[in-house]
Design brief:
The complex is a heterodimer of chains A (about 140) and B (about 550). Chain A contains five helices and five strands, in the order βαβαβαβαβα. Chain A has about 140 residues and is of the alpha/beta class. Chain A has a single domain, classed as Rossmann fold (3-Layer(aba) Sandwich), CATH 3.40.50. Chain B is α/β, with parallel strands linked by helices. Chain B has helices at about 1-20, 50-55, 90-100, 115, 140-145, 165-180, 195-200, 210-225, 240, 245-265, 270-275, 290-310, 315-320, 340-355, 375-390, 405-425, 430-435, 435-455, 480-495, 500-515, 520-530, 535-545; strands spanning about 80, 85, 110, 160, 190, 230, 235, 280-285, 325, 360. Chain B has a five-stranded parallel sheet with strand order 1-10-9-8-7. In chain B, strands 2-3-4-5-6 form a five-stranded parallel sheet, with helices on one face. In chain B, helix 6 crosses helix 21, helix 10 crosses helix 16 (about 405-425) and helix 14 (about 340-355) packs across helix 15. The chains are: A alpha/beta (about 140), B alpha/beta (about 550). Chain A: GO terms for molecular function: methylmalonyl-CoA mutase activity.
């Protein structure tokens, strides 16, 4: 039987807005993926730890508090430290366009901004996992 | 049948006279551009009156307050224009406050950063990346002094969006006022102090529900005696709605939470009329114009009935649901952000027609970042245009008597009551929160909305229809990344300079008081604050005693 795609949805930092994270989690489940949601206030180290422990294929980060420029790269870094840099990190939230290039440079695979249909995220994750994301 | 109506009418006329003596009407005469005179209130002619009107709708300033809590509402004074602001350092935010006051804003509303809201100092490892981002960073009394510098606290009322550490920030505010020579009996404002919706929707909780409820009732009791003009809680539906609830759920969960606070205060030994007049509410205004206006009317009627009939409050002030409104942040689009100005105008109008006491209008760029000064000004101007140009404030509750609005008001009331009954059956709001009931209901509604938007069953102009190629929006407010380091240094300076033995002593007294469940913690927290103990230090003492809530 084919293994289901496993995704960790995480809220780094202190931000409490989880409407987006919960909706993404539900949408991914509806598309047949297994989703682990960390809950609020996770440190980058905790997120990396959970990603490895849960053996996920992708980590999805959500932040609406403006902390993304500090916190998202730290998650990438924490995965690297645990020799898990092969797990791609994607993110979303209230993220100004001009920050996106910086985040991609820091090793985040993709940023989804407000108004993105959930199907777009689903497709991206599928392409990540099948290995043809780096076009 | 008309006898009761006439009694109400005469009573209303007397109330209006009395109000006008205290606060004269804004104009000698209200007329429109066609020179037609505008009455303060329109109501059925005597031969159209039925019992239902007297019972359900009545007159403004009278039970059940469907038409508003004051007899002539905005004829005397407009709502308070209160823009929520705060970012970066206390110094920067102080500048924005003074700017807004110069621009004609009539009250302050402080946004704190997340570390402050969750009780961490700026140099705590948990605060990394979040200092000064969504609001101003306040670590010690010194920051609060800077924040309020040059602002006369005997004249300006201040609303503070602070929940789990509300007691700490309120004490800092009192301490600054005292330094300005303003006694605490005179300060006015509001603390949000609504922990239940933090568990449900907003996420800035610290302690578990039981000790959190104790802190809240401590504040009620302390303020009833010492700070009588301060609103001790702002029971908030705003964030419940932002998390994805329907309008009905927003009102239902908010009022159910309100009942839980009333229950807790009564249980702690307070009389309902001792604290209920200082309860305030906070609602959202989304796009469905008539639904929103009806929602506010329904909420007032339900709360009045609840306070009078269930809780047997005698004081009329306990029956009146006073509320602040903010337009809906989650309705703003990142695409074509100028369209948001129009959304905000419609939402603000629904709040005004719904009889709000104060209003925050969102800025067009808030789906992208915190607002720039220009965007914040347009948002304030939107309110000013509604107030000064549209004429909607010249007569009270102009939507009353509309078949649609009255029936919608009734139906919302009915649906809300069904939820409230259900929550009561579960053992009340605290129980329902702990079981995750409200959280599940909200999430389900949010997901349904998302699916409708994606299928285009719901059209969001500029986002899933009428799209254009977007340019990068460069004119956004950026919080200086250097700020975090400065703030870290500053709090460490405060620690170096203060009288440490005194701080230790005050924190120790607080710890001991926290262990005795009947002790009111407010005086101890005030002493801690005055000795320049930090928000983080005070909250850590209480964390050690109360434990931490870890979510569902």
């Amino acid at each position: 039987m084919e293994r289901k795609i496993r995704v960790l949805i995480a809220k780094p930092g202190l931000d409490g807005h989880d409407r987006g994270a919960l909706i993404i989690a539900q949408a991914l489940r509806d598309h047949g993926m297994e989703v682990i949601y960390t809950g609020l206030r996770q440190s980058p180290a905790q997120i990396a730890q959970a990603a490895i422990q849960e053996d996920v294929d992708v980590v999805g980060l959500s932040s609406l508090s403006g902390g993304h420029k500090t916190l998202f790269p730290k998650v990438v870094e924490a995965l690297k430290e645990k020799d898990a840099e092969d797990i791609p990190v994607i993110g979303g939230g209230v993220i100004p366009d001009e920050d996106i290039a910086y985040l991609l440079e820091q090793g985040v695979q993709k940023i989804f901004t407000p108004g993105t249909p959930t199907t777009e995220t689903v497709d991206f994750i599928k392409s990540c996992v099948s290995g043809d994301s780096n076009e | 049948m008309t006898e009761r109506f006439n009694e109400q009418l005469n009573e209303w006329k007397k109330q209006v006279e009395k109000t006008n003596e205290r606060f004269p009407e804004r104009k000698e005469q209200f007329v429109n551009k066609s020179d037609i005179e505008i009455d303060p209130l329109y109501f059925p002619k005597e031969d159209q009156v039925d019992e239902e009107y007297s019972e359900k709708i009545g007159f403004p300033g009278q039970y059940p307050y469907t038409r508003g809590i004051q007899p002539s509402m905005y004829r005397n004074r407009f709502w308070t224009m209160r823009q929520y602001a705060g970012f970066g350092s206390a110094e920067e935010t102080n500048k924005r406050f003074r700017y807004l006051l110069e621009q004609g804003q009539t009250g302050l509303s402080v946004a704190f950063d997340l570390p402050t809201q969750i009780g961490y100092d700026s140099d705590d490892s948990m605060s990394e990346g979040e200092v000064g981002k969504v609001g101003v960073a306040i670590d010690s009394l010194e920051d609060m002094e800077t924040l309020l510098k040059g602002i006369p606290l005997d004249q300006v009322s201040t609303s503070m969006t602070i929940n789990a550490p509300a007691s700490v920030l309120l004490c800092m505010y009192i301490a600054v006022a005292e330094k300005q020579g303003v006694p605490k009996e005179k300060v006015t404002g509001t603390i949000q102090n609504d922990i239940l919706k933090e568990y449900i929707a907003r996420g800035t909780y610290i302690y578990p529900p039981k000790p959190s409820m104790r802190l809240i009732t401590n504040i009620f009791e302390y303020c009833a005696n010492e700070v009588p003009k301060f609103n001790t809680i702002s029971i908030s539906g705003y964030h419940i709605r932002e998390a994805g609830s329907t309008a009905v759920q927003e009102v239902a969960f908010t009022l159910a939470n309100g009942m839980a606070y009333v229950d807790a205060a009564i249980e702690s030994g307070l009389e309902v009329d001792q604290f209920a007049p200082r309860l305030a509410f906070f609602f959202n205004a989304h796009n469905n114009f008539f639904e929103e206006a009806a929602k506010f009317r329904a909420a007032r009627r339900i709360w009045a009935k609840m306070m009078k009939e269930k809780y047997k409050a005698q004081n009329e002030k306990s029956w009146r649901l006073r509320f602040h409104t903010q337009t809906g942040g989650s309705t703003l689009t990142a695409q074509q952000p100028d369209n948001n100005i129009v959304r905000v105008a419609l939402q603000a109008l629904s709040a005004v027609l719904g009889g709000t006491q104060s209003l925050h209008t969102n800025s067009r760029d808030e789906a992208l970042a915190l607002p720039t000064e220009e965007s914040a000004r347009i948002a304030l101007r939107t309110q000013q245009i509604i107030a000064h140009e549209s004429g909607v404030a010249d007569t009270v509750d102009p939507l009353a008597g509309s078949y649609y609005v009255e029936q919608m008001t009734d139906e919302i009331e009915k649906e809300v009551m069904a939820y409230i009954d259900r929550i009561e059956e579960m053992g009340g709001a605290v129980q329902a929160v702990e079981e995750g009931y409200m959280q599940r209901e909200i999430h389900q509604a949010a997901y349904e909305t998302q699916k409708k938007i994606e299928s285009q069953e719901e059209v969001i102009v500029g986002m899933n229809e009428f799209k254009i190629e977007e340019e990068v929006h460069e004119d956004l407010l950026r919080v200086d990344e250097q700020l975090e380091q400065n703030q870290v240094k500053q709090v460490q300076n405060v620690r170096d300079q203060r009288n440490q033995p005194q701080v230790d002593e005050q924190l120790n007294k607080l710890k001991e008081a926290a262990q005795k469940s009947h002790e009111n913690l407010m005086p101890y927290i005030l002493d801690c604050v005055k000795s320049y103990a930090t928000v983080g230090e005070i909250c850590h003492v209480l964390r050690d005693e109360f434990g931490e809530y870890t979510g569902m």
